[in-house]
Write a structure and sequence with these properties.
By secondary structure, this protein is of the alpha+beta class. The protein folds into 3 domains: 206 residues, Beta Barrel (Thrombin, subunit H), CATH 2.40.10.120; 87 residues, PDZ domain (Pdz3 Domain, Roll); 86 residues, Pdz3 Domain (Roll). The chain is built from 10 helices and 27 strands. A hairpin with a 5-residue loop joins strand 9 and strand 10. The longest helix has 35 residues. The chain is globular. The relative contact order is 0.09.
Amino acid sequence: MIGLKRIARPWLWQLGCVLGLLALPMTGLHAQAMRGLPDFTELVEQVGPSVVNIRTLEKVSNRRQPGGNSDEEMQELFRRFFGQPLPGQPNTPRQQRPNRPQEEDQPRGVGSGFILTADGFIMTNAHVVDGADQVLVTLPDKREFKARIVGVDKRSDVAVVKVEATGLPVVKIGDVSRLKVGEWVMAIGSPFGLDNSVTAGIVSAKQRDTGDYLPFIQTDVAINPGNSGGPLINMRGEVVGINSQIYSRSGGFMGISFSIPIDEAIRVSDQLRTMGRVQRGRIGVQIDQVSKDVAESLGLAKAQGALVRSVEAGSPAEKAGVEAGDIITRFEGKPIEKSADLPRMVGSVKPGSKATLTVWRRGSSKELQVIVGEVEPEKTAQKAPSAPTEKPQASHAGQFLGLTVSELNEAQRQELKLRGGVKVETVAEPAARAGLSEGDVILAVANTEIKNVKEFEAVLARLDKTKPVAILLRRGEWAQYTLIRPQR
């Protein structure tokens, strides 16, 4: 017995030591795991009341002359972007409706926004409200207001609307400079019209170049149509961005979303509230990135700055003495790391202000004084008439949806950077009611990817022709989902 005790004691002591050592790191890992999994419930309670649903309406003519008016009909199709019947509105084909007044309000789109001030200033995306005849704002407590569009800035995709109310719950504005890659963030919005939906993820990158004036915040937060204009929120309950875009090869969410930094958006919104528009500076140069080879050949320590390709005649830059071939390395003493930094820096300066440019010219730096000009308002480009081309053979398999489609040729696929899809040739009810237009590209039907007309016809053949059909389409650079409800 004594021998057994002597053997057992060291064995038990060693086992206890091992278990004790194992327990220590496991406890630490468990605590670290618990710290790494955030709880968003308090944030939702804190910020949720300040996030609103935005619906837009446009006035459209519902009276059709015998033979129809093709221009009016095409305009109507574009106006019915995201079209869905409002509650209480008859969901009947247009030709079966009785004659009514010349114009009626039709749904145009759905988006999100958030309340900036207690007296009713609300921020959203420009593409949510631009062109709308009426804007309806619904709060989480179900109160609904008609909103006035204060100002829209398409270049930054920021807009401000105003509702007549007091004592509204407002968001807290965060400091974007404190935002870190890998930090948890949350989005609240109305994807597909589903009010107050919450999604979460992390910051994937900052200062992502996707536009002339905006260095976007990239996240993996799930963003879908209807989330546009909603807030991106940090773990302190502060708004750090406006959810604006997604990147996708298929049109669906692929884990890459972009948000407008809130500091940039606030600068825009302040001008919209005071002047109704945004003033941006310009100096009149065409610029390019400075490559490593160019930097070495010109004696620059590293590849940075903006290479001046050309200078506009009579521009502020020409008057200041800027020459083609100069490399602008600093603006108002701030270094220009890449060429995209210059238009942002210049754009933030009030037109008429004097600014200092530092340029690298023939092996040495030189400072030039420039009087910043103003960027002209955006003008609608006029499309040049194209030579008539032979239309590809159209498929009529989708007539029960009001669609005829054709194949995309190789040039169109390369231009749109698509693997497949079919082009919409003509649109009638009920596709017109759902907002489809001639020239749209259908990428998927009923959650099935479509590569060509044959696959389009095969999917339609399997559908129940009495039930709504989900369509994923591409229009220009934007992709969206819509629902076509077959006529009964």
